[in-house]
Amino acid sequence: MNTTFTLQAGPVPDLEPIQVLRPDGRLVDDPRVDVQLPAAEHLAMFDAMVVTRALDQEHVNLQRQGQLALFPSCRGQEGAQVGATSALRPVDMLFPQYRELGAWVVRGVDPVGIGMMWRGSWHGGIGLLEAHSSTMSIPIGTHALHAVGYAMGIALDGDDAIAVACIGDGATSEGDVHEALNFAAVFDAPCVFFVQNNQYAISVPVREQTRSASIAHKAVAYGMPGVRCDGNDVLASYATMREAAAYARAGGGPVLVEAVTYRVEAHTTSDDPTRYRSDDEVESWARLDPIDRYRTYLRAIGVLTDDLEAAAVERGKCAATRLREGIYDRPDGDPLELFDHVFAEPTPALVEQRAELEAEIERADD
Amino acid sequence: MNTTFTLQAGPVPDLEPIQVLRPDGRLVDDPRVDVQLPAAEHLAMFDAMVVTRALDQEHVNLQRQGQLALFPSCRGQEGAQVGATSALRPVDMLFPQYRELGAWVVRGVDPVGIGMMWRGSWHGGIGLLEAHSSTMSIPIGTHALHAVGYAMGIALDGDDAIAVACIGDGATSEGDVHEALNFAAVFDAPCVFFVQNNQYAISVPVREQTRSASIAHKAVAYGMPGVRCDGNDVLASYATMREAAAYARAGGGPVLVEAVTYRVEAHTTSDDPTRYRSDDEVESWARLDPIDRYRTYLRAIGVLTDDLEAAAVERGKCAATRLREGIYDRPDGDPLELFDHVFAEPTPALVEQRAELEAEIERADD
Amino acid sequence: MASITMVDALNAALRDAMADDERVLVFGEDVGRMGGVFRVTEGLADAYGTRRCFDTPLAESAIIGTSIGLAMRGYRPVPELQFDGFSYPAFEQMLSHLAKFRNRTRGQVAMPVTIRVPSFGGIGSPEHHSESPETYFAHTAGLKVVVPSTPDDGYSLLRDSIASDDPILFLEPKSRYWARAEVELPVSRPPIGQAVVRRAGTDVTVVCYGPMVATALEAAEIGAEEGWSLEVIDLRSLVPLDRDAVIASVEKTGRCVVAQEAPRTLGFGAEIAALVQEHAFWRLEAPVLRVTGFDTPYPAARLEHVWLPDADRLLDAVERSLDYGSS
Amino acid sequence: MASITMVDALNAALRDAMADDERVLVFGEDVGRMGGVFRVTEGLADAYGTRRCFDTPLAESAIIGTSIGLAMRGYRPVPELQFDGFSYPAFEQMLSHLAKFRNRTRGQVAMPVTIRVPSFGGIGSPEHHSESPETYFAHTAGLKVVVPSTPDDGYSLLRDSIASDDPILFLEPKSRYWARAEVELPVSRPPIGQAVVRRAGTDVTVVCYGPMVATALEAAEIGAEEGWSLEVIDLRSLVPLDRDAVIASVEKTGRCVVAQEAPRTLGFGAEIAALVQEHAFWRLEAPVLRVTGFDTPYPAARLEHVWLPDADRLLDAVERSLDYGSS
Ligand SMILES: Cc1ncc(C[n+]2csc(CCOP(=O)(O)OP(=O)(O)O)c2C)c(N)n1
Ligand SMILES: Cc1ncc(C[n+]2csc(CCOP(=O)(O)OP(=O)(O)O)c2C)c(N)n1
Ligand SMILES: [Mg+2]
Ligand SMILES: [Mg+2]
Q1: Which of A60, A213, D77, A120 has its CA nearest to residue C124?
Q2: Measured between alpha carbons, how far is C148 from C140 in angstroms, rounded to an integer?
Q3: Which residue among B179, B210, B222 sits closest to A175, beta carbon to beta carbon?
Q4: Is-cis flag, bond preceding C240, omega within 30?
């Protein structure tokens, strides 16, 4: 992979996002990054995007059927998530917000463990840690600090992994994200801040979130490199993250990456986006769909065939089926487990309270 | 006053601080700001600096004599504080940290009200509000948000006052300061962030506080203008704040001003700075003393005479005497007042507890 | 009389407060254009303009910190923190400044700030959306804590809170947002600091607030079938606390059960128990019993019904109180 | 036997913990080069390098947030928050993550984080430097709260805290920092969760912790002259709480006074009162009385001695307890 842009702490980032594929699926003339990938890698990313979309839709369906309490769709953000995550090594530790389905698909997380979060079976999601992802984090911005602490630990260990803090445009307003960026820079922590600027924090558009020329521009305040990429372009996201990860891994310190994208669906299944944005706006972004764009390109270069695409769609269906079977009417866990993980050993108070709840459940069963 | 620099949101600030007077007290060649002040204004600022220094020293003396619990000296920062505050209108609302003696002197605050804070008579200082200064704020960075809220109120009122958040270099690491800068920009609040970069947050040097090229550079992250000035140059501080205030007052939104200066004394009277910095360093900054520099200049241009300087020194002595007389062995207030200001009306619990304490005091008096 | 929900009542209270006093400002995350995630601020931006009802960036400490500055400037901010669990980032501003400002300025600067916080659990939300934060606030000298349990109280207490010159944490029980009552607005109920007997009884005093009031009334109904006469006291505000009302009831019944959703340790029930045993010592025929959530993090949605106190858990405590010493 | 202060003991505990386990890290504001404002971390950076003992930028949420990340990476962070009042900015990280991480991950990820916080009042400090934050932490499910009162306990409890796999708020009583005792280090005292009877007695149980232990012992001394025999129980940890020790003592004395510096409402005394009346109901000859600070912001330095509970206030409660019902 060649690149003509360099990550550099100091200068104001380029406002023009890095792009590899034009919206029509053709390569941009004279791209700032040059992505030469083996067909297998292309196909793996395409697959992941298709599977993500299918799982995303199946979550929405399950929620409508009363099987999930809530679901935040990542539709439209598959390019950013799959591209960026595919550029990482498996041991690079992800610190996700909650809308990171594409990242978890790349990491091979069992969708049932994700669905359990949204069903309300257990907090945080199951099986993420095994895939080198922290649990889902709901208090906005907070987990960016966990990523930085983890990255400080990597540096202390002399390891060459990195940590990736996945945050939203809205999150950049929180004090914790500022403190995270600052600590990361001061301690040269190998941490990439991957901001999916999907234009909204629930109903609040990014122009009301900040007056910074871009999210990437905020890097100047921390003396770290900032870079924007087209988040609906999986190859741009891939290439940008690959550069950022290499920079952090090589000891350069943290990098702030802004992937410019769009949340095509509602904030969550509880949200009514017609209250704050127009259909026109949504449609104009829907035309920039990352999967369509990538498909056109992969078709054009002959990597994607009818058969291979059908296989991807089939894998998406399988994943959706697995999710549905694992989630539908899934029995609830044992409530007494609630006492098991408060501390390493339950305190006397917890032992007593556990017994109280046990007795209560027995009473109810009578 | 002419200036050749313009405040502008967007570009990276100049690293070179604005300077009017060279360390040797001569005008810089080709200054970016041109300060033409009437002699009376010069003398008022000189006076304020001298009075500040005298009061500062008297606080230290009183603390050594056991009359104050603690005192944070502003020695070396008089240029920044007096210059900046003198450039404001009396109704412009100050939001001080705790080391703002020079600002309060300019505003004519009775030093006894300040000394009462450090004696431990009451929190926050007395008589500051009347001088359009909020009370002293100890939780670092927090009051920057008060300044922004106040400035939002000014804008809602259509008033042309401004608010000034006085913070330190250390404060810029706190999440609250980030949130304050961001809110100020988003709401076009007429607020100037006046950062005295005195090189230290207790023992931590500013280079370990941030990797930003300068504190002023942080303005880029908020799309607001950032500017550096030589804080040991009272005229540069004056001119820079005057520009910043005018910009904010005219509806331009917030400005971030960094005054580069040095805390010559210990962090507070409890601190032992030899643990973290060298005498050489302190001496090299002491040579940049803002009062000496200004004196040399005012003498050279014939504004300051022996008599006038003696008068300034005399005013410093008077202020110090007033402080000493108001503070020395000052009787403590009535502890029952502690119940008076918790709420507009005391709750039944407070009424009861007040009676308990009253009975206890009576018992003790028996 | 119209049938209205608590959301309707709160929305009307905000509307009327904004109409009556133009220094009242409503702001927070998603409260403007969208009308709030629970629609409590619906229509306010349209009615009063985005000058007075507006969206903020996503930063809770800033929402409270700027409220303090606005209050200094003479405004009466009514900020919303979107959920209980997202009040925590604003904790320092609340504890170190909002609670202390009047005192620090010897009464010169009031803090007429009403912080609305959709609170408590029971509606199947994800993590951090079902917390019971009242202890944190009630323990903090200088903050008042108001918790309505019905639409009419929602209206009346919110109006009183906004009119008050003190900082108030106004904790709205999410699980009661959509419960209806026949109310003619505007309505005026007893002031902040006065408890209300929601059901009179003679055997056991049940002290509760917010979401637990409905549970207590349900328990009283069921208990009546067993021949137990429960007196249900809705505190309405935790600070100031109507201790007299609680003690008067216990002087009558001799028994007291206190209910809260919060974890047991240092939940508000601890304060009630401490006060009741202190002020009705000889009259108590059984210890004050606490009906509470557990000392664990709040569970995920599918388990919350097991974790939360319900009428059964409450009645079990009532029975233990009634049987106390007799076994 | 050497005469050492609590500062010495804590410093030695950190030193020994760092020597024993290289995953122990010490960091915070001014803890490195300067050795901490109270010198508790003195010499650690020299002894173990700035990799393991280092200064951070001025941001408490970040100090705790990065501690969480370091713990996930297998480290045992021992961050310092410079003063009680500056723990508030880190509240969200503590409540929403530190306390919940083990539970959220079903036990997969432990949080062996010991947060040292110089706490409580009594040393003439400015505003925000004398807070009693224990209620905030003790009410939060998933946090442990440890409060030493003597140099030997300072050493032993800090070692145990650092060795524990749970997140611990280690609240150091500033006013006891310089009190001396004869101690041979290393020293091992009862584990976290076990209270200690500091003085045996038969008339009234005095429950206390941290700075109030010395006050209680002083009161017991004076009370003895009046012929009152006080039993002083030092809780040592609030979570876990040694309820059995408290109840056992009250079963013996029949009377209980609990002392705290914190404001009264929902201070830890409320929990003690609630538990004692529940578990020693028939044995109590007087209500549990609370000796506390007041429900006001902590006063400025010159007034703190009036505000803080002292032996006189404590003995007044003891007397009221002993006289209870007889007047
Ligand atoms: C501290 C905090 N405040 C408020 C919320 C409520 N909330 C949930 S998602 C969200 C918007 C987040 O926006 P962004 O960071 O852009 O992420 P996106 O949802 O767009 O992926 C808000 C305000 C929260 N979860 N945490
Ligand atoms: C939130 C908070 N954390 C820690 C402290 C302790 N503290 C007092 S002053 C100070 C350093 C402040 O540095 P800076 O902002 O540069 O101001 P300066 O003292 O240099 O004027 C610290 C850490 C505090 N007051 N508030
Ligand atoms: Mg977003
Ligand atoms: Mg400084």
Answers
A1: A120
A2: 20
A3: B179
A4: yes
Report how far residue B103's alpha carbon sits from residue B158's, in angstroms, rounded to the nearest whole number: 26
Distance from CA of B140 to the nearest CA of C (A): 11
- Of all atoms in ligand 2, which is nearest to the CA of residue B99? 21
Per-residue pLDDT of A14-64, as tens digits, reads 999 999 999 999 999 988 888 899 999 999 999 999 999 999 999 999 999
Residue whose pair of structure tokens reads 């979060």 in the numeric block = A117
Over the range D91-119, which residues count as b (16 or more CB within 10 Å of their CB) and which as e? bbbbbbbbbbbbbbbbeebbbbbbbbbbb
| CA D79 distance to own-chain centroid | 16
C-alpha to C-alpha distance for A161 and A151, rounded to whole angstroms: 8
Least Cα distance to B7 among B257, B183, B195, B277 occurs for B257
Residue at token pair 């970040």: D62
Centre a 10 Å sphere on the Cβ of residue C282 and count the other Cβ atoms it contains: 9
In this structure, the dihedral spanned by the alpha carbons of residues A290, A291, A297 and A303, taken in order and rounded to 10 degrees, is 140
Residues composing chain B: 366
Which ligand has an atom closest to residue C61 CA? 1
Q: Do C68 and B149 touch (CB under 8 A)?
A: yes
Please state the pTM of the whole predicted model. 0.99
CA–CA dist A141, C128 (Å, integer) = 14
| Residue pLDDT tens, chain B, 366 long | 556 778 999 899 999 999 999 999 999 998 888 889 999 999 999 999 999 999 999 999 999 999 999 999 999 999 999 999 999 999 999 999 999 999 999 999 999 999 999 999 999 999 999 999 999 999 999 999 999 999 999 999 999 999 999 999 999 999 999 999 999 999 999 999 999 999 999 999 999 999 999 999 999 999 999 999 999 999 999 999 999 999 999 999 999 999 999 999 999 999 999 999 999 999 999 999 999 999 999 999 999 999 999 999 999 999 999 999 999 999 999 999 999 999 999 999 999 999 999 999 999 888
- Residues in chain A closer than 8 A to D88 (CB atoms): none
Task: Kindly give the pairing relationship between strand C237-239 and strand C144-146.
Answer: antiparallel
Tell me which residue in B174, B179, B211 faces A185 most closely, judged by beta carbons.
Answer: B211
Q: Does A168 sit in the ligand 1 pocket, CB within 6 Å?
A: yes
Give the integer Cα–Cα distance in Å for A22 and A35: 14
Identity of the amino acid at B296: T
The terminus-to-terminus CA distance of chain D in angstroms comes to 50
* Residue C61, amino acid: S
Residues of chain A contacting residue D72, judged by C-beta atoms under 8 Å apart: 134, 146, 149-150, 153
CB contacts under 8 A, D 84-103 vs C, are: 85, 88-89, 91-92, 95-96, 99-100, 103
* Cβ pair D272, D207 in contact under 8 A: yes
Measuring CA to CA, which residue among D322, D193, D309, D196 is closest to residue D258? Answer: D309
Global ipTM: 0.98
DSSP B202-240: TTEEGGGT--SS-SGGGGGGGT--EEEEETT-HHHHHHH
Helix axes B175-186, C60-72, angle to 10 degrees: 70
The strands making up D53-55's β-sheet, listed across from edge to edge, are D53-55, D24-28, D76-80, D114-119, D168-173, D144-146, D237-239
Burial class (CB in 10 A: 0-12, 13-18, 19+), B8: middle
- Residue C138 · residue B347 · CB < 8 Å: no
Centre of ligand 4 to C-alpha B242, Å, is: 23
| Contact of A36 with A303, CB cutoff 8 Å | no
C56 → chain B, closest CA residue: B183
Burial of B185 (0-12, 13-18, 19+ CB in 10 A): buried
Inter-residue contact A112 to A323 (CB < 8 Å): yes
